[in-house]
Write a structure and sequence with these properties.
By secondary structure, the protein is mainly alpha-helical. The protein contains 4 helices and 2 strands, in the order H-H-H-E-E-H.
Length: 76
């Protein structure tokens, strides 16, 4: 699975994050690949993902609690 490094907006970012995490949860990609892809998205789009020290509203709404928990564990 290949992800883009840069995204135009938070909606595209949340869709990409959902796709990566869902692929992992459905056993379509391995954990190593999921972690690598999440880190690529996060590091290159940090300013759109984090607002005022928390996840942006759009990400919270579109990703949901469980995916954001996984995201938090991967990036910490």
């Amino acid at each position: 699975m290949e992800v883009k490094r840069f995204y135009k907006n938070q909606t595209e970012i949340s869709t990409a994050i959902n796709k990566v995490i869902d692929s992992y949860l459905n056993d379509e990609i391995n954990e190593e690949s999921m972690i690598k892809n999440i880190k690529i998205i996060y590091e290159n789009n940090y300013s759109k993902i984090i607002k005022n020290g928390d996840y942006a509203k759009v990400l919270k709404q579109r990703c949901g609690k469980r995916r954001l928990e996984i995201l938090s564990k991967v990036i910490s």
